[in-house]
Structure formats: structure tokens, C-alpha cells
Design goal:
Blueprint: E1 3-16, E2 19-25, H1 27-32, E3 38-42, E4 53-61, E5 66-72, H2 76-82, E6 89-96, E7 108-114, H3 119-127, E8 132-139, H4 148-153, E9 157-162, E10 169-170, H5 173-187, E11 193-197, H6 200-213, E12 216-220, E13 236-240, E14 245-249, E15 256-258
Parallel strand pairs: 7-8, 7-11, 8-9, 9-10, 11-12
Antiparallel strand pairs: 1-2, 1-6, 2-5, 3-4, 3-6, 4-5, 12-15, 13-14
Helix pairs in contact: 5-6
Amino acid sequence: MSLMLQEEIVCNRELVTGIYQLTFRSAYVSQNAKPGQFVNIKCCEGFNAILRRPVSICSVDRENKNVTIVFQKRGTGTSYLAKKRAGDVLDLIGPLGSHFDLSENYKNIAVVGGGIGIFPLLFLLEQKQCVHKTAYIGFRSKNYVVLEEAFKHNSHELIISTDDGSLGQKGFITDLLEKRILEEGIKGEKYDIIYTCGPGPMMKKVVELASKAGIKCQVSLEQRMGCGIGACLACACKIKLRDDWQYKRVCKDGPIFWGEEVDFDD
């Protein structure tokens, strides 16, 4: 169950240009949030940013009751959010949305994230107990790389790519995933599941690769949301059925879906 809460901000800092890490203290969200879920934040009073802003949960410290989100300053709402300071009160609703499937049957997992889509995957890596965890994260350049140490700490293997080759391997992160899947196919080993979040074309490629290799895949969609509770239908996405399709709401029915369900060409 999600609640409307007023929580104290512990810290808010800029990681790299335009990317902010905000931690707030919340006994309820820290104890009830699951990887893949988000909080919907009221960024200011008045009419300058009426709609709340949905932000994925990036990390949870259950012992200290702290919850961390990371967001990009892109418009009016997130500009107000970037100005928040320790001690300010954060008006939020959460935790919201569906969560990743964390079945104990998945012993060997991979996460694939691009840009600001990496953040919910860190929460998953923190919480998922399994034999081997591989993290693939891609960025435009080294100037946009964030949370590298946190991903390294929470995975057994970290693979980074940048479009310009300024850090990690040059190229798209999906190129590295494809190469690895082919190698694992030769060795007779493969991931039990792949989780992905990021740009639509990247997730589409991940789903295609997983399907070819016979690997389960879950995606976290990032459509722009309005109400965040399923009322306005602004975040509708096209979901495949057997011989048909239907629209579902990312905020209410998602944001987590099985990869083969999503029509990325809509």
C-alpha cells in the first residue's frame, strides 16, 4: 500500500552536471519499497509545477530508514527539487508501481541500464541475493558516469561503456551484452534473467537479445506520467496479447513489464 507522506530530506547533492542524489528519511518507504518501484514527489507549492514528479527508488538503507533517489534536472519541477536542502520536508506518495521479479530461482542475473535508467537497477542489485550478478551500464561519456562504485560494490562483475570511449569500452552497452551472450552460449552457460531500464531503443535491443538466447527479461518503462496513480492515462503503453494488444498504464500496471509484452514500436 502506498501512503502520502511528509518526510525529512537528509541530503541533496549534484553528482555530475544536472544529476542529483537526494536522500530522505522514511520509516514506511524504507521498510516497504521493493526494487522497481517509485515515489511521486510534489516539487513545490503553488501552480508552477502542479503535477508530481515520479522518481525511481535507487537505494534503500532499511536499518537507518533512509531512501535515496537520483534524478536529472530537466524542467520546472526537477529544478525546484534540485534546490531542496537537508532538513526540508519532502511531500511524496509511495512506494508506487509494480516491482521486479526477484525469484530465488534466478541464480545468475544481469542488469542492463543506460544513462539515467540505471538507478532502479542499483536497488535491485542491493536487494537480490544470488550466485552471480553482472551489471552492464552505459553512458554518453565519462562526464556522465555516476554511481560507479555503488554498482561495483553490489555486483560481482561491472561492465561500463561510453559512446565516445572516454571510459570503459567504446560503443553501446548492448553490443557488449550481445558479445557476452554469444560467448555464454558457446560455453553452455547463460543468465537466468536480464533486467533492463533506459532508453527505448536500448531496451528493445536487450529484449531481442534475451529472446534469441532464450533468457527471461523484464523492463522498467519510463513514460512521462501525469497523475502517477492510473487516473489520467498519460503514461499508456502498448502491450501485446496473443493475437491482439491493449494499452496499460505505466504508473499503475507497471513500470515493470515482461520484455516480450511491450510493443516498443508503438
